[in-house]
Amino acid sequence: MSLRLVVLISGSGSNLQAILDACGQRQAGRHADIDVMPAQVVGVLSNRSDALGLSRAARAGVATATLAHTDFADRAAFDQAMIAVIDRWQPDVVVLAGFMRILTPAFVQHYSGRLLNIHPSLLPLHKGLNTHQRAIDAGDVEHGCSVHLVNAELDGGPVIAQAALRVEESDTAETLAQRVHALEHRLYPAVLGWVANGRLQLDTVPPRLDGQPLTTPIRL
Q1: CATH topology of domain 3-119+144-160+185-213
Q2: % of the chain residues with pLDDT over 70
Q3: Global confidence as pTM
Q4: Distances (CA, A) of 158 to 23, 42, 93, 142, 149
Q5: Domain map (residue ranges) of the chain
Q6: Which residue from 18, 27, 183, 214 could staple onto 59, CB 3.0 to 4.6 Å apart?
């Protein structure tokens, strides 16, 4: 049975594209040298109507929806509207892929054990924004990205897997961001593949990979 994914985006959707490719939902004429995982993106939701990722989803034949957060009285009302849209797609996992909104505890609780995020740092380092410049300013030797379960703490849920690279003296925030993006595009599909193939259980504390508790993140 195919794992049903709903992906939330706010921008270009490059991680969404990596996931679509890994699911075999690439646009006509595209080819990728990857193993297709038993998963399907069944819906893409954005809080921005101009998000490029919506076009990526449409080209792959995936249903899309847009909810502008500015149309709602507060964060709680917006999140409840998102839940109503997402639940119609009946997801097994909700995937945050560059979704630039802080979620309410009620939203996080509703999708507890099936809500994933990718963050551009080696958590617990550099939670929040501007991670690449902060890594440079801190003199970090390495930098990277993390896939984690979402809980009520910002970027604070259990970290499942990470990918790292060496910070070069010549790196700027922009070059580091480009290099980390390449890691993200491999890391996120890998973790979702573990879920789709029954290796990773998200609904336990801590998550379990191949039956063993994940007490430290897997490094890829």
Answers
A1: Rossmann fold (3.40.50)
A2: 95
A3: 0.94
A4: 25, 25, 16, 20, 5
A5: 3-119+144-160+185-213
A6: 27
